[in-house]
Amino acid sequence: MPAPVKANKKVVESQRGPTDHARREQILGVAAEHFRNFGYQKTSISDIGRAIGISHAYVYRFFDSKQAIGEAVCAQTLTRITLAVERLVDSAISASDKIRKAPLILIEEGLAVFFQDRKLHDIVEEAVKEHWCSASNHSVTIESLIFRIVAQGRESGEFERKTSADEISHSIRVAWTPFIHPALLAQRSQEELRDDARIVSSMILRSLAP
Fold it and tell me: What is the pLDDT of residue 24?
């Protein structure tokens, strides 16, 4: 499993200028709006700069390419999902209930992010297809949250302790792929996804029983 720090490194290297600069946030806000209205492919660096009233060359002071901007917008979009799962992980319910609820949250948040705003779905799908760091980082983050649930379950005595926690976390993340991947989310109804999530959760919990 790739380390989160390594996965993040490419994103950081593709951004120029101070990351907390107000202008950078303005560029991201305008870019996200353009991606929503016109789509990622039809938006250019010049379009973004023109909307703000700056030159495309000035945009390059903060991002070295349109993909770098897309990476940042995609990361912001995916953060909504990971934060919802993180709140579940930090909650007081049992680890077993977290395994049951986490894929349902992934489905609910994923559908809300990707399909209430179809253009943002397109950029996330582009990120997955082109193996952007933002998409890779998202998978790494989800897997790290699963690892925390597994650790909690072992501490409470709910889960077995023989199998490698890394192997378990990776296997669960792979099993949850239909509830994470934007293209797979688009293929079925929410009801079908939720039914599958319950079946997968039951299988996972049986395999984790001490």
Answer: 87
Tell which residue, 81, 175, 176, has the closest CA to residue 124.
Answer: 81
Which pLDDT score, from 0 to 100, does residue 121 have? 66
For residue 15, list its beta bridge partners.
63
Q: Where does CATH 1.10.357.10 sit in the chain?
A: 72-208
Domain with CATH 1.10.10.60 in the chain: 14-67
pLDDT in tens, 50-73: 999 998 889 988 998 888 898 888
pLDDT of residue 19: 45
> What SS3 class is residue 63?
strand
Q: How far apart are CA 100 and CA 201, in angstroms?
A: 5
70: exposed, middle or buried (C-beta count within 10 Å: 0-12, 13-18, 19+)? buried
Q: Which residues pair with 154 in a beta bridge?
A: none
- CATH (residue range 14-67): 1.10.10.60
Rounded Cα gap, residues 72 and 75, in angstroms:
5
DSSP class of residue 94 equals -
Please identify every stretch of the chain with a pLDDT value under 50, giving residue numbers as ranges: 1-15, 17-20
> What is the fold, at CATH topology level, of the domain defined by 72-208?
Tetracycline Repressor; domain 2 (1.10.357)
DSSP-derived secondary structure letter, 177: G
